[in-house]
Amino acid sequence: MTQASAHRDLPVWRTLLFVPINVERFVEGAHRRGADAIHLDLEDSVPDAEKDNARRLIETAAIRVRRGGADLVVRINRPLDLAVRDIEACVRPEVDAISVTKVASPSHLQLLDELVSKLEQNRGLPVGRIRFIAMIETADAFFHVRKIASATPRLAALNLGTEDFAMSIGMEPEPEALLYPKQHTLFAARAAGLIPLGFVGSVAEFGDPQKFRDMIHRSRRMGFEGANCIHPGQVTILNEEYSPRPEEVAAAHDLITRNDAAKAEGRGSFAVDGKMVDVPVLLRAERVLTRHAAIEQRNARLCEFATAGAGGAA
């Protein structure tokens, strides 16, 4: 593979489940939901009067939500003074990534990167270990998305924050209106070798499971690889739809096998079911198998944690 993503060691984040850090029952149950990552929220779900207390909860909440093997992401606040205090509280060994809200420019991320690097160094953590997820949530930031995507090696994923972005534009967060900005953000993520997070629709729509599944299935075919979710009922759907289907994995294996046979005969391409198979088709097959293997590894890790937890409970 020649794309930038081939050179990055990116995590598998099909599902990032938002959990308000100040709601005890949600924190306690988060590790049982099956999400690839738990997205502890310091931002919208925490009232202004509770922000300081929310930061104090990070240490214990981080350990608890990781019990099922999920990665831990912390969503921080804007403006900058709140972001700095959030970062000072969440640069810890248990935190895998920081979700940077309302990213304004490449320099915005670079400034926060400098702060996180200094804290990692001072706290004995590997510098660069904690990743960033960049949230594009304003019209102005949208026009800088390509440069934002390349702002720092710490950046792992890019997402368009549907509700805030729609409000910034003055539009309704409907699929027709979101298609262009969502695709443009996806293209910027792919060009920079990042995970394209999201789907073409609103994260608030969880009342109709089949409608939600159809939306995710369509978005995955567009190239998205994972998404935030606000309800545990969305986790299974996202995990299934953002994973290669068994028939896709079988077909990819078949293509690779046929290609090996064709190369042995000195042929650079071949036909399957009346369709020509050439380099782009084979690269897609390789991508399917690579993603399938990464997801299987992730699932094995989650099973190990679940087994260890069951043993401990016994």
Q: Care to describe what's here?
A:
The protein is an alpha/beta fold. The chain has 2 domains: about 10-240, Phosphoenolpyruvate-binding domains (TIM Barrel), CATH 3.20.20.60; about 245-314. About 50% of the residues lie in helices and about 15% in strands. The protein has helices at about 25-30, 50-65, 80-90, 105-120, 140, 145-150, 160-170, 175-190, 210-220, 235-240, 245-265, 280-314; strands spanning about 15-20, 35-40, 70-75, 95-100, 130-135, 155-160, 195, 225-230, 270, 275. It has an 8-stranded parallel sheet. A two-stranded antiparallel ribbon has the order 9-10. β4 (about 95-100), α4 (about 105-120) and β5 form a beta-alpha-beta unit. α2 (about 50-65) packs parallel to α3 and α9 runs parallel beside α10. It is globular, with a radius of gyration of 20 Å. The model is unreliable at about 1-5 (pLDDT under 50).
Short description:
By secondary structure, the protein is of the alpha/beta class. Helix content is 51%, strand content 14%.
User: How can the largest sheet be summarized?
Assistant: 8 strands, parallel
Number of strands: 10
CATH-level-2 architecture of the largest domain: Alpha-Beta Barrel
Percent helix among the residues?
40-55%
Can you give the mean pLDDT? 91
**Biggest sheet: strand arrangement:** 7-6-5-4-3-2-1-8
Helices and strands in order, then pairings?
Elements: E1 15-20, H1 24-29, E2 37-41, H2 51-65, E3 71-75, H3 80-90, E4 97-100, H4 106-122, E5 131-136, H5 139-142, H6 145-149, E6 155-160, H7 162-169, H8 175-192, E7 195-197, H9 209-222, E8 227-229, H10 233-241, H11 246-264, E9 270-272, E10 275-277, H12 279-313
Parallel strand pairs: 1-2, 1-8, 2-3, 3-4, 4-5, 5-6, 6-7
Antiparallel strand pairs: 9-10
Helix pairs in contact: 2-3, 9-10, 11-12
